[in-house]
């Protein structure tokens, strides 16, 4: 399930989210994930749901802001499945699906550049290198086992915009700020 429109937050509103959640971040280029951005208008419950694009992702750089529909939750509940905890996490360009043995994999995405902390369904918190990537979802599912995903029709623009901003500002990594 995908919202009818992309998120409408202004540069000022996103800057305020960053100021509150991560005042220590000084990178020129960053990505902000807002869990439950559409929580009141999408899904079967009046709250954040899994398996739908009810979240928002914003690429922020000095010259602009780009907004995307997104998913920051696993597609379903299952014992041990990971949900990225809110916080500031380092990411970098890389490949998603390097262990998949099927057509179309791996493909360019954004991967962990440092350990992250996740909440595992029914098991508590865990910190480490889990392959919690930012990648393309699918049209029939968010395609997430804990990753952050962007709908397929928005993915190429998301990837190209972020890569161009990183190159323009000489950044090899970027902070991903997940806000609950």
Write the layout of secondary structure elements.
Blueprint lengths: L10 H11 L8 E5 L20 E7 L2 E7 L11 E3 L2 E10 L10 E6 L3 E5 L3 E5 L5 E3 L11 E3 L1 H17 L5 E6 L1
Parallel strand pairs: 1-11, 9-10
Antiparallel strand pairs: 1-2, 2-3, 4-7, 5-6, 5-11, 7-8
What's the short story on this structure?
The chain is α+β, with helices and mostly antiparallel strands.
Give a verbal description of the structure.
It is built from 2 helices and 11 strands, in the order H-E-E-E-E-E-E-E-E-E-E-H-E. The protein has one domain. The chain has 180 residues and is an alpha+beta fold. Strand 7 (116-120) and strand 8 form a beta hairpin. The mean pLDDT is 92. The strands form 3 sheets. The chain has a 6-stranded mixed sheet with strand order 3-2-1-11-5-6, sandwiched between helices. It has a 3-stranded antiparallel sheet with strand order 4-7-8, with no helix packed on it. A two-stranded parallel sheet has the order 9-10. The protein is globular.
